[in-house]
Amino acid sequence: MSGTLLKGGLEKGPFSKQQLTYLDTSLKSLDTDQLQWLAGFLTSFSWIPMEHVADPTDSVWVLYGTQTGNSERLAKLTAERLDGLGIGNTLCSMGSFNPRELGKINRLLVIVSTQGLGEPPVEAEAFHNYLHGKRAPSLGHMKYSVLALGDSSYADFCQTGKEFDKVFEDLGGKRLFGRVDCDVDFEDSYEEWLNGVLNEMSQSRALSANSIEKMVPETSEMGFRTYDRKTPYEAEVLQKINLNGRNSTKETLHIELDLGDSRIQYQPGDALGVYAHNPDELMMEVVETLGLTGTENVTSHTGEKSLMEALRTDYELTPLTGANVIRYAKLTKDPRLEKIVDDNMELLEYLRGRDVLDMIRETPFKLSAETFITLLRKNSPRLYSIASSSEVYENEVHILVSTVRYKAHGRNKGGHCSTYMADRIQEGDRISVFVEHNSRFKPPVELDVPMIMVGAGTGIAPYRSFIQQRQSGTAQGKTWLFFGDRNFSTDFLYQTEWLEYLKKGTLARADVAFSRDQEEKVYVQDRLLEKGEEVYRWLEEGAYFYVCGDAQKMAKDVNHALRSIIMLHGGMTEEKAKEYMDYLRAADRYQTDVY
């Protein structure tokens, strides 16, 4: 009966492919009595799936594609601002958007992030592919503007936003306001973009940056101060422990921080932003290479101070970003650098392993202190998955940090933030932090729903918070952990805790993969395939599937393994398996937190 409904009517309706897949799977599971009851319920119930809806032809559509939640947050702020100005608007995620609506939309605002090597977020993939396919419509009636989010330390900076901007133009759309590319410190760029968009809408030619509502107020509605990227909290380090064994090739730090009376709140799945300082040795080498003293006065984005003070807290010297090289090439007019920045692959290769010191040593150029800081990226926070539950550790937050160390271009180097915490921060010191909420990586609200948690290395961090949260309540849902690292004896992070959870039954199952413990390497995706029949059974029982860790290899390999499991144990074709996975994503049952 449900199959007839889909083929005869629903697929002709205003539904995206993901929504059709979800409906197909759901309706096929219902018997006749259940379908009749549902039909009557829907007849009497006015349900609007969009987050915020107005007349599609008159309203401004705010469409977002997000991975960690930043694009979603900015999209909601944009909708709120439009509401405040009396401008009708419709807010929608790309994962829920039906492309057939494009013919009705006259004004479109797109906010989208880039992940991996220039790839769109998972929820934006289908829409991105549609616009670049043969079925894409003419958009000559549409005015649009794109806000692109990215990270300039990657060569494919804001690539997804650039592609959306170009394809809308290629399809005939007219820019309402030019695309703005945002680095990880996106607040000022966002305000610039939103002001430009609103001014172009001719709602108020007098709009200025001061008229844009700040992303987070300085005080909450309750009257106490709140903390964010611009106003971080100075948290005391309570404990710092290396979780790896003595002979491990890795250094993974468990760090506990005191939140004091800050009233900072977080949920499982959220991340903690940490601001690091540059090491004194690196700053001195940079200053000496430039022929400066470090005492020169400069105007930083935080005010006037000495060059050395500005370098310590306000800017980054590592890693080298594409923006650094482009600015330096333009300033020096060096033929080699100009050639590099004109070729994306050459730029990617040049950036590998280099920092700002390498660049100014290899291509010397006389710079004033003031000019030099204009080449640099503002100091940006590094985000770490929170590894604790506030239900268990009140007024504390725990994170897991993998220390990055390497040798490149003749020098020993390290990660900007990881070596800051490993080498220069001790217990009792204070570091600048804030909570970054992630609405896209959360345990199920229903306490009886099973969870399958897949992670490698520090990807285990959020699962510690998931389990602590469930242990603190009355959750009855089964939990299954797949964890991978290099060696069992030295790299089984939080081993004692996981064994205790297994003993208590909070964790129903655990399967581990230690790649260096045998001649043939074994990874978490291999363990998944081995347990494929039961993994599929859990999914059919309604389990949520989580992946946390490396985006470039692990997450992709796990995705391929899951598709193979669904094909084999669900008896599906590759296309049907993809639809099944699309349904899991649409239902928020396949969530990823990758980096």
Automatic annotation (TrEMBL):
Binding, NADP(+): 515-516, 521-525, 557
> What does the entry comment about cofactor binding?
Binds 1 FAD per subunit.
The GO molecular function terms of this record are:
flavin adenine dinucleotide binding; FMN binding; sulfite reductase (NADPH) activity
For the ligand (FMN), the binding residues are 113-116, 149-158
Q: Where does FAD bind?
A: 318, 382-385, 406, 415-418, 595
Q: Which NCBIfam families does this UniProt record tie to the protein?
A: cysJ
Q: Spell out the protein name for this chain.
A: assimilatory sulfite reductase (NADPH)
Q: Which organism is it from?
A: Flagellimonas aequoris
